[in-house]
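BUG: 3D viewer hangs when loading the predicted structure for this chain

Environment: internal workstation, default settings.
Expected: structure renders.
Actual: progress bar stalls at 90%.

Input used:
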Amino acid sequence: MTVFVALNGPNDNGKKLKAPSVRGWESPGHKGINPKTYRGWYGLRQDGLITIDCDTHDGLQRWLNITTMPIEEHGWVRKSPGKEANDYAGWHFIYRWHDPLGELEHIMGPHAGVLPGIDVRQGRASQIVYSAPGYSTLHGGPSTLQPFHAPWAKDFVVGSRAHVADDTWDEMPEGIGNNTMAALAGTMRKQGMSVYTMARCLQAINKITMTTDPMPKEMLLDICRSVSRYEVDPFVNEIAYVDD
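Structure tokens produced before the viewer hung:
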């Protein structure tokens, strides 16, 4: 299923241009917009897909070296404005998600900075800008999609670089809600929490940290059900008490 998501695009309200403009865009029931009639910016949700986003020329060369293929041999490639001072500095390499052995679970979802100049967008909770100034297809398309190969990701360092340890917040920043909730649920599951208890905890966090645009309860429950398949693995650190 191909889902196109409406994005904020140019606006005067200070919202991020590339961020989805509607609530619940990651939910299974969201049908998105019709690209034939929609006139604003929109993105391609990554259902069954994974996109390698190379924002710099160094990132591009690094990816071509990893895959050992020239650009024209990749099935679907789009260009984007990128971060460098020209209009041809970014590349989106789009592949079919293919993980029959469960080797790629660590890169599911959006991840920034998996390698210098390279980001990952994968799955229903991710999207890439598809229609906006400077974005277009370089070659290929949905009919020429190739599978993503697990060895390509062996050196990926997973974890968002956009929000480092000293970048604290009270209201959850745009774009990290799904990943943050999944990480919290994963930690709770390791300690043995049930789906019901995890969902109640996430709903409380949702209420406290996402006051302007909370995640739907159904989406939080989906996250809890997803992580519940992992085995319980509690780990208790020894705590040293020091007298004041």
